[in-house]
Amino acid sequence: MQITRRTDALLEMMIVRLSGDFDLGAVASVRSAFHEVVADGWSTVLVDLEEVSFIDSAGLGILIGLARRCRENGGTCVLLGVQDGVARLLEVTGLDGLFPSAESAEAAAVLVTGQASAPTP
Amino acid sequence: MTAGNTITGDEVILRVPAKSDYVALVRVVLAAAAAIDPDSRDDRVEDLRVAVSEAVTNAVESHKAAGTDSHVEVRCYTEGHSVEVTVRDRGPGFDPDSVPVVPDAESPERLFFENGLGLPLMRRLVDKTDIETGDDGTLVRLVIDTSTSPK
To answer: Looking at the complex, does the CB of residue A41 fall below 8 Å from at least one CB of chain B?
Structure first.
């Protein structure tokens, strides 16, 4: 699995983009990346799943752990670009209620702050 | 689907190393085998793919916990619209009744349960899940009719 971190300076948000199957083989590296992000002080983290077409309980468990740490720090974990297969698993497990989801970082910013983010210059 | 040693449907057998890298390989092969039936539904094959992934993941972790380098054996029988998958490991076994119950999603405790979703997911996604477990390992049997709507 490929993991890419980037900071959206305008929105002041951390975005972690995952690419590939989010299963047992990806758990160690993704958990490590999430730990680093939280350790760096980010309490609200956007996880971009647009290029994740498969997830199972191993991946869901890692997302739950991130959501808990975000909440403990007063923030939240927002999922971006959730694909059909991932959405089905979130719905079947009832976890869709724990994870706000958005189509874009801008939409996530609105979701998190309750107000529109500044327009891109 | 099987009567004694007589196999009436098609059978695919995989023996894979108990390593996380091979879970994806099993998923690909099993999903492809299930999709050979022209009446199979994509969403049901996807449900089977997840359930198989859960069973093989448990097997790999069981071998890791036991420190054994035995292979995990996966068999897939297809007959008509029915697919039966068995996953056999040689781990220490477990008590299915002792698996913690995952709290409801609305519960504040839910975020403290990162594990334990695999078994409920298997039971939720396929039509039938049987587990035989003992000191010599665990056999998980998943049965699904891929031509029907998701549960």
So the answer is: no
Interchain contact, A56 vs B53, CB within 8 Å: yes
Transcribe B89-138 into DSSP letters. E-S----GGGSPPPPPTTSGGGGG--S--HHHHHHHHSSEEEEEEETTEE
B67 vs A112, more confident = B67
For A18-54, the DSSP string reads: EES-BSHHHHHHHHHHHHHHHHTT-SSEEEEEEE---
The answer to whether the CB of B103 falls within 8 A of the CB of B79 is no
Cα B75 from Cα B34, distance rounded (Å): 12
Nearest chain A Cα to B60, which residue? A24
Reported as a single tens digit per residue, the pLDDT across A39-94 is 999 999 999 999 999 999 999 999 999 999 999 999 999 999 999 999 999 999 98
CATH architecture, domain defined by B9-145: 2-Layer Sandwich (3.30)
The tokens for A74 are 């007063």
- All structural domains of chain A, each given as residue ranges with its CATH number in brackets, are 2-111 (3.30.750.24)
The first and second tokens of residue B34, run together, are 């299930």
B118–A contact, CB cutoff 8 A = yes
Percent of chain A with pLDDT over 70: 93
User: How many residues are listed for chain B in this entry?
Assistant: 151
* Residue A90 near residue A67, CB atoms below 8 Å: no
